[in-house]
UniProtKB/TrEMBL annotation:
Subcellular location: Cytoplasm; Nucleus
Main location: cytoplasm
Positions of the PPM-type phosphatase domain: 136-390
GO molecular function annotation: metal ion binding; protein serine/threonine phosphatase activity
Record protein name field: Protein phosphatase 1E
This protein's GO CC annotations: cytosol; nucleus
């Protein structure tokens, strides 16, 4: 973390917010929901704070520690004044058991704590947190393509430890792509909450795969409650990578995929869940469901995915159980790529290394190049591509497969560049 850059941002921020927000004043950024459960508050507050700070150009690490400190203060408060009035209808007894908070009011309190932390740090800057130094640049590009709506979401969080106040000496970075269907609600929910739930798993450090499976299940259960309250019907596939120390763990539901490239060669990390995959077909038929071909293979004639978050009208046929795999990093890896099926339906994994190398040598905008290639190859779906480089900083963006020479380039879609 560049201390001068951080202090400069704090100075600008307190000029914009010299005092806390009045009770009746509009929020500078809109909450995701009108009502939020206590277990959703953590994720929605962090999302709100990070969005507010990113829009003002805050350094990523500073954003993470500011939000973490403000949230820890919020969770120590008595939040009962923000409880929603209970519904009085007799046929809604089950919903009455769910405590909900009025989002705008409780998020005003959170933002005021964020402002107060910024004011305090502007006056007396604390010891800078340890930066996520080992992790390389992350490049992201996403397009709606020919679809009516954009239903993909992605998360790039090299500051995982800083955001959750984890200080165990193990470096972590989290990257995810979620591909929604039937609306964007499920993808948005996963992008807001899954990393929060994962951070709370006791098995995270020793057994990331078990932690991921529990986090996916918990997040899906939380989404079920929201879907019931708000009559939501969407679903989302997802692929998530956690780099933890010298291990890379990938967890996935559905047909979004992650792949690793090592020494210019594609390394298979996972097998996507598709209805026509033989073991998925057998699982669904054993439950009494069926797989039919209707332009593509579908579960019970409806969804073209066999595992997803949400899609509660087709559970358990459309399973919410994630699969995971973990590999040891050897230090010679180039990058890991995450993308939705809109990319992988048009581009074979074996083609990726050469496409990336060509993009880095010629134009530099590597994620945009990959998305454009998939579109030109015939993809009409939403397309999201995320590349996380794992090689040393001086070799990040242009590494010749035969000579090993490198040159630095700049990508307009750069996210989470290494902190100095």
């Amino acid at each position: 973390l560049n201390e001068e850059e951080a202090k400069g941002f704090l100075r600008r921020f307190v000029e914009e917010f010299p005092v806390t927000l009045d009770e009746g004043s509009p929020l500078p950024v809109s909450p995701l929901s009108r009502k939020v459960s206590p277990e959703e508050l953590h994720g929605e507050s962090l999302e709100l704070g990070l969005r507010l700070l990113a829009a003002r150009g805050a350094p990523a690490v500073l954003s993470a520690v500011l939000c973490q400190e403000a949230l820890s203060q919020l969770l120590q408060d008595d939040l009962s004044p923000f409880h929603c009035p209970q519904e009085a209808e007799a046929n809604r007894e089950e919903e009455q058991e769910v405590v909900l908070l009025v989002s705008e009011a409780v998020q005003r309190l959170f933002l005021n704590k964020l402002i107060n932390v910024a004011l305090a740090w502007h006056q007396n800057f604390p010891k800078p947190p340890s930066p996520p130094s080992r992790f390389g640049c992350c490049f992201v590009h996403a397009i709606k393509n020919t679809r009516r709506k954009m239903e993909d979401k992605h998360v790039a969080l090299a500051e995982f430890n800083q955001l959750f106040g984890i200080q165990d000496g193990v470096e972590r970075a989290y990257y995810a792509v979620f591909d929604g269907h039937g609306g964007v609600d499920a993808a948005t929910y996963a992008a807001t909450h899954l990393h929060v739930v994962l951070s709370k798993q006791e098995t995270l450090q020793g057994d990331a795969a078990t932690a991921f499976k529990a986090a996916f299940k918990c997040t899906d259960d939380m989404l079920r409650g929201k879907a019931k309250r708000e009559r939501l019907r969407s679903g989302s596939t997802g692929v998530v990578v956690l780099i933890q120390g010298q291990e890379l763990t990938v967890a996935w539901l559905g047909d979004s995929q992650a792949m690793l490239v090592r020494k210019g060669q594609a390394v298979t990390l996972m097998d996507p869940h598709k209805p026509e995959r033989e073991d998925e077909k057998e699982r669904i038929e054993a439950l009494g469901g069926c797989i039919t071909f209707m332009g593509c293979w579908r579960v019970n004639g409806t969804y073209a995915v066999s595992r997803a978050m949400g899609d509660f009208d087709q559970k358990p046929y459309v399973s919410g159980d994630a699969d995971c795999s973990t590999i040891k990093l050897q230090g010679d890896e180039d990058y890991v790529l995450l993308a939705c099926d809109g990319f992988f339906d048009a581009v074979k994994p074996s083609m990726v290394p050469q496409l990336v190398l060509d993009a880095l040598k010629q134009i530099g905008e590597v994620a945009q190049h990959l998305v454009s290639y998939a579109k030109e190859a015939g993809s009409s779906d939403n397309i999201t591509v995320m590349l996380v480089f794992l090689c040393p900083a001086e070799q990040l963006l242009s590494k010749d497969a035969t000579t090993g020479t490198a040159q630095a380039t700049q990508d307009s879609t750069l996210h989470g560049a290494p902190q100095q």
